[in-house]
Amino acid sequence: MTYVFDIPNVTLTLAVMIGLAVGIDYALFILFRYRQVMKTETDYVKGIGLAVGTAGSAVIFAGVTVVVAVCGLSLVGIDFLAVMGFASAISVIFAVFSALTLLPALISIFHKRIKVNKLQSNFKKDIDTPWSKFITGNALAAVLLGLIILVAAAIPVSHMRLGIPDDGVKPADSTQKKAYDIISDKFGEGFNGQIPMLINVKDKKMIHKDYNRFTICV
């Protein structure tokens, strides 16, 4: 990708973090399903097939969802954010393929070391917990409580400032913030975020056309 795009250093870190996170999640998902299957199955090869055949579709769906979500960063129109999204999507794709190919191979090699608790006939029938009893017994109150918590958590959204962070978001007592305010006061708003623009000066009509196009985009 470096031959086509300029990749910031933070992009590789983000891609590795996301790929590692989803890779572990997908691997545990399939491994948990394998252990569930092996409670009633004796052939580990068949157990691997059943685990991948059932949990694998969920892994693919989850991976596609994450890929679409991170590729949505390209809709912002900022190049480095788009590159971050594409790099993260590639790492997620590799994580999905690893969970569907490498993980089953590792399970087949180390299947004897994977402990599986066989089903017991004398299991406890009443598995209800106090929390589950409260939720099912007071469904309306639980819904209202959840909505209140969500609304309270969403209150800061009204004060959220969208955009690329600069020194203007630093603490008021920091030197960066003080310098930012001095430059804005002395030279005017926008001086801290100058945008270079190329204009064809040979054609006077093109000067006004390029300028108007630039102001519309901004």
UniProtKB/TrEMBL annotation:
Cell compartment(s), UniProt: Cell membrane
Superkingdom of source: Bacteria
InterPro entries: MMPL_dom, Mycobact_MmpL, SSD
Keywords: Cell membrane, Membrane, Transmembrane, Transmembrane helix
Membrane-topology annotation of the record: Multi-pass membrane protein
Regions crossing the membrane: 12-32, 44-75, 81-110, 131-155
An annotated GO cellular component: plasma membrane
Domain SSD intervals: 7-109
Matching PANTHER family: MEMBRANE PROTEIN MJ1562-RELATED, MEMBRANE PROTEIN YDFJ
Name of this protein: Antibiotic transport-associated protein
Originating gene: mmpL8_1
